[in-house]
Amino acid sequence: MRHALAVRDLPLHHRDPFDRLLVAQAICEGLTLVTGDADIARYDAPVLW
């Protein structure tokens, strides 16, 4: 539930709801996302690539 609630606080850098959920999960859990998606890299989550 915490991840779903965190999605609503994200800026709309990315329109894909699944990707936004992945970003919220990474932020909540302190995880690093592995992606080449430049829009995801605009969020305050660690990104590797």
Short structural description:
The protein has about 50 residues and is mainly alpha-helical.
Helix content: 40-55%
What does the radius of gyration come to?
10 Å
Q: Would you list the SSEs in sequence order as H and E?
A: HHEHE
| Most strands sheet | 2 strands, parallel
Q: Which percent band covers the strand fraction?
A: 5-15%
Could you tell me how far the N terminus lies from the C terminus, measured between alpha carbons in angstroms?
28 Å
- Which segments are poorly predicted (pLDDT under 50) over 5 or more consecutive residues? none
* Average pLDDT score: 95
Instruction: Compute the number of strand runs.
Output: 2
Number of helices: 3
What structural class do the secondary elements suggest? mainly alpha
**Strands ordered across the widest β-sheet:** 1-2
What gross morphology would you assign?
Answer: globular
What labels would you give this structure?
two-stranded parallel ribbon; 49 residues; mainly alpha; 47% helix
Notes on the structure:
This protein has 49 residues and is mainly α. It has three helices and two strands. The protein has a two-stranded parallel sheet. The N and C termini lie far apart (28 Å).
Question: Can you lay out the helices and strands and say which pair or pack?
Answer:
Layout: H1 2-7, H2 17-29, E1 33-34, H3 38-41, E2 47-48
